[in-house]
From TrEMBL:
GO biological process terms, semicolon-separated: cellular response to oxidative stress; hydrogen peroxide catabolic process; response to reactive oxygen species
Organism: Grifola frondosa
Enzyme class of the recorded protein, top EC level: oxidoreductase
Protein name (Swiss-Prot/TrEMBL): Peroxidase
Residues engaged in binding Ca(2+) 1: D6, G18, D20, S22
Entries under PANTHER family matching the protein: CATALASE-PEROXIDASE, THYLAKOID LUMENAL 29 KDA PROTEIN, CHLOROPLASTIC-RELATED
SUPFAM superfamilies: Heme-dependent peroxidases
Length: 133
């Protein structure tokens, strides 16, 4: 969840940087966004690891996501590329699609971030699968 909430901050239209660790670097701002409610505890748990190692917050968040996904049975290994600079600014608010957004709003936001309609449907379907027992 942290990986997506950090990365979806990418917006050529609004100037968000994306997978840059801004959700950690600017946690006081970004965890106050409605769409990031509850993420503050996850962010706090990651901060000691980042402080202990010579790694940018963006690299840490994306590395943790790649490792976490690859530990799931049957999941693919996600390539990881090191070298993200530290975020210079927080992500703008309202870039994480919300359940109350219309389909058109969600598709427009995700298109701005580079997702096709088919990819958005797959991503939304994964929420249902992940929540299943």
């Amino acid at each position: 969840i942290l990986t997506f909430h950090d990365a979806i901050g990418f917006s050529p239209t609004l100037g968000g940087g994306g997978a840059d660790g801004s959700i950690i670097t600017f946690s006081a701002i970004e965890t106050s966004f409605q769409a990031n409610a509850g993420i503050d505890e996850i962010v706090k748990a990651q901060m000691p690891f980042i402080a202990k190692h010579n790694i940018s917050a963006g690299d840490f968040v994306q590395f943790a996501g790649a490792v976490g996904a690859s530990n799931c049975p049957g999941a693919p290994r996600i390539p990881f590329f090191l070298g993200r600079p530290n975020a210079k600014a927080p992500s703008p608010d309202h870039l994480v699609p919300e359940p109350f957004n219309s389909v058109n709003q969600i598709l427009a936001r995700m298109s701005d971030a580079g997702f096709s309609t088919v990819e958005v449907v797959r991503l939304l379907a994964s929420h249902s699968v992940a929540a299943a027992d």
